[in-house]
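STRUCTURE:
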């Protein structure tokens, strides 16, 4: 059966070898009139950083730092989206409130205790994003007062799949305008004024 096939030559892996990873190349600079997809992290091109609901918030923070992200997708044992957790969730008031309420230690707090569950997670539809501009996304973040927006794609079966993410920090970097992400809700006019110069 294998008589027509010759084995390939192999060699040893060289020390210091890296590995291929999905990557998305976003434009370094955008303006408010550019297509919104130019500032969206597309999860078909970049792997989402995942965590489980039962993992500790300290692990969530380590993973964010290690991967250079401020949002993790929380997935259950079947790899379905159970919510999101952000750096603000981990480093903000939520853990302190739980410590005060429960009398527990910080290392006892789990992702599920402070994440945003699906029933409280507002999403944008990819079909709307495809016709939107960067300015629309900034306005959306401003209106919601959030630093992130989750984008879903709806399949032929009507089921949603998380397809992308918007980050106020990433958008600010690409716009070339310094934005304090906690102040995104109050800076939309400032961004427009700076870009107009």
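SEQUENCE:
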């Amino acid at each position: 059966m294998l008589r027509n096939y010759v084995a390939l030559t192999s060699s040893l892996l060289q020390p210091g070898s890296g590995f291929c990873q999905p990557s998305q190349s976003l434009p370094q600079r955008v303006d408010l009139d550019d297509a919104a997809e130019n500032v969206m992290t597309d999860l078909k091109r970049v792997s989402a950083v995942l965590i489980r609901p039962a993992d500790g918030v300290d692990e969530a923070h380590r993973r964010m730092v290690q991967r250079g992200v401020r949002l993790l997708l929380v997935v259950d044992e079947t790899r379905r989206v159970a919510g999101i957790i952000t750096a603000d969730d981990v480093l903000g008031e939520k853990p302190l409130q739980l410590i005060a309420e429960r009398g527990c230690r910080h290392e006892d707090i789990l992702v599920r205790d402070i994440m945003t569950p699906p029933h409280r997670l507002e999403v944008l539809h990819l079909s709307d994003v495809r016709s939107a501009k960067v300015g629309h996304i900034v306005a959306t973040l401003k209106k919601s007062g959030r630093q992130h927006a989750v984008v879903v794609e709806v399949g032929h079966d009507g089921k949603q799949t998380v397809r992308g993410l918007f980050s106020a920090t990433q958008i600010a970097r690409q716009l070339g305008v310094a934005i304090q992400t906690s102040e995104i809700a109050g800076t939309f006019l400032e961004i427009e004024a700076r870009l107009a110069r």
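REMARK: The domain at 36-196 is CATH 3.10.580.10 (CBS-domain).
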